[in-house]
Design goal:
By secondary structure, the chain is of the alpha+beta class. The chain has 21 helices and 9 strands.
């Protein structure tokens, strides 16, 4: 059967080339992300770093590990999904050939071995190409991480020989995972039903599709309901993943949804070609669904992720404006409260000094240490300039308060804290600031707890309230001798922009490569579909259509599927948008939704460009042969 698999593979290479390319890129992305992750996790700390430099190095390394792990998981998910859908469509396109093999005496087990043999060959070819491509992807991924400041300068992932075994396992494993379900279903179809395209062979919505679709749809609904009560961190995570579940559900149900949406598309005065394209959408359900599925996943995840990031950033800015009072902000280093409060025209000030901290929760084998930021504050001044933080009267002496990140233990717990080079020992948590979408410091520390030398070069910001009748320009000029002076509104806007830039960088690293990969999956489905329609195109030309009209008909059909994919993908992303509205309303008090319209339009235009260019190219290739030759050969 392996020899027959090879013969089929070489004879029908056009059906497999897209899947091989998908496996190649999947292996490349998984290999690259895994090498970056392992190299970041085992990176040696440079000697001679101070506390601040060490904290920055640790934070960058942890971020690189997290991003690489997310990219690895996202790449693996897309690879299995796209290869699986491609194989299912490829096997469906060959159901007549497989039926003839059954009629010639091949058993169900032999048919499964034939398809599995093809998958092994495809996985081997994709892996052989994916290993060297992975080196190029790793270089690009490293450059991207370093450019965005997520890894230390000079970071270089190390090659490890064992990665070859992982790549081979990933490539062949993904190919096998993609073909097993399709092979099982193909072997269960009766040969005569496959030849006549009736019964089980004609049924597109299988029990597996119904099960997956309904399961993930229920998951999306559950995440939308639970996100508003999940808190700052949990709510944001559940809101983001709602679009993923909805996208998988819609892609599984695409054979049912795509024709249904196609009937709703306006035809207007499109003419014969538009009517033919619409009829093809209804009749070629497998083909239309295979093109729409990766597009639904791409748009749903990318639009949902980007919309969530911009919305949470906007909600964080709104939250910060509501929770911050004052007129001016002075940014400098070290404790400067006395210098600022002594300036004429200053009615009050709150100096906040940020220091790197290491917090250990638990003891013995259960101890967990995390890095973060501690904010040294005057409790009364902090309450004045940050309304809504609650009372911090107990924050004095040897005690700490849990910050707005929500990832520290609440009041009554005890944590071991190290600030810079100073070990502060076990400290009780006496208060907890309400969690915020925008996050903030892990702990609030009272004055006098952190030794003065640790504060001398630490970054600080001081919120200033002007006395009635004071001239803002005069006070600003006087405070300029202490540090950089901004209005509170300008400082909040700049802080929000910096956080948005970081979020955009994270999104670019995680979704950039994956988004391009999904677009390749869309193009692959178009190529496979057009390659299998040579006889159909020949019949249309024999019926009176010119070659150019056939190309335009296929283009209209491809763009119609693109519109449907974009609509269903947007509907999947709407699950995240609803969850975002509920989460921001529950945490920030204001339902906030902000969409990156420029990015949305770019994704839509890119989808039309990819599907349109691929459709035209493959249709021209499929109609190169004269119709009589194709009809006579009965391909």
């Amino acid at each position: 059967m392996l020899r027959l698999s090879w013969s089929t593979f070489t004879e029908r290479w056009a059906l497999f080339i897209g899947a091989a390319l998908t496996v190649c890129l999947g292996v490349a992305l998984v290999q690259s992300s895994l090498l970056v992750l392992i190299s970041a996790a085992t990176l040696d700390t440079p000697a001679g770093l101070g506390a601040a430099e060490y904290a920055a190095f640790t934070e960058g390394t942890e971020l690189a590990i997290t991003l690489s792990a997310l990219t690895l998981g996202f790449s693996a998910f897309l690879t299995v999904f796209i290869v699986g859908s491609t194989f299912a469509f490829t096997v469906a396109q060959r159901r007549r050939d497989l039926a003839l093999l059954r009629l010639a005496g091949a058993g169900r087990g032999q048919l499964r071995r034939l398809l599995i043999g093809e998958a092994v060959l495809l996985g081997a070819i994709g892996t052989a190409a994916g290993v060297p491509v992975g080196l190029a992807v790793m270089s690009f991924q490293t450059w991207l991480l370093e450019t965005l400041g997520f890894v230390p300068p000079g970071f270089t992932p190390q090659w490890r020989t064992w990665i070859l075994g992982v790549s081979i396992g990933v490539g062949i494993g993904i190919a096998l995972a993609g073909v097993l379900v399709a092979a099982r279903r193909a072997s269960r179809v009766r040969p005569l039903e496959a030849l006549r395209d009736t019964g089980e062979a004609a049924r597109v919505m299988t029990a597996g599709r119904w099960g997956i679709g309904l399961l993930f749809l229920a998951g999306a609904v559950s995440l939308v309901i639970l996100a508003p009560v999940g808190g700052s961190g949990g709510g944001q995570a559940m809101a983001v993943n709602a679009a993923l579940c909805a996208a998988v559900a819609f892609s599984a149900l695409s054979p049912l949804l795509v024709p249904g949406v196609a009937r709703l598309l306006p035809v207007g005065g499109g003419g014969v070609l538009t009517e033919l394209a619409r009829a093809n959408l209804r009749d070629g359900v497998r083909r239309s669904a295979s093109v729409a599925a990766p597009l639904i996943v791409l748009v749903g995840i990318v639009l949902g992720q980007s919309g969530a990031l911009t919305s949470f950033a906007a909600a964080g800015e709104v939250e910060q404006r509501r929770g911050t009072t004052g007129d001016l902000v002075v940014e400098t280093t070290g404790p400067v409260g006395e210098r600022i409060s002594g300036v004429p025209g200053v009615a009050g000030a709150s100096t906040e000094i940020a220091v790197p901290i290491w917090v250990t929760v638990g003891s013995g084998e259960d101890a967990e240490t995390s890095t973060g930021t501690g904010l040294v504050v005057d409790p009364q001044a902090y309450e004045r300039f940050h309304p809504g933080t609650g009372t911090l009267a107990t924050l004095q002496g040897r005690a700490v308060a849990s910050g707005p990140t929500g990832d520290m233990p609440g009041a009554g717990a005890t944590v071991a804290v190290r600030a810079g080079e100073s070990d502060l020992g076990p400290l009780p948590v006496v208060a907890a600031v309400p969690t915020r979408i925008a996050g903030g410091p892990q702990l609030l520390l009272p004055p006098g707890l952190v030794p003065t030398p640790e504060l001398a070069g630490a970054p600080s910001r001081t919120f200033v309230a002007l006395a009635p009748g004071a001239d803002p320009a005069t006070v600003t000029a006087a405070l300029g001798a202490v540090g950089e002076v901004l209005t509170v509104d300008d400082w909040i806007a700049r802080d929000a922009a910096e956080r948005s830039d970081t979020s955009a960088g994270v999104f670019l690293v995680i979704m950039g490569l994956g988004g391009m990969y999904a677009l390749i999956g869309v193009a692959n489905a178009v190529v496979v579909g057009a390659s299998a329609r040579r006889a159909e195109f020949a019949t249309a030309r024999a019926g009176g259509l010119t070659r150019g009209q056939v190309v335009r008909m296929a283009l209209v059909e491809s763009w119609a599927v693109t519109v449907i994919g974009l609509l269903l993908g947007t509907l999947a992303a709407a699950a995240t948008f609803i969850a975002v509205l509920g989460t921001t309303s529950a945490i920030a008090g204001v339902a906030t939704l902000s969409l990156p319209w420029t990015f949305v339009l770019t994704v839509g235009a890119g989808a039309f460009l990819v599907t349109g260019a691929t459709s035209v190219f493959t249709t021209l290739s499929a109609t190169r042969t004269q119709p009589v030759a194709l009809l006579g050969a009965r391909e």
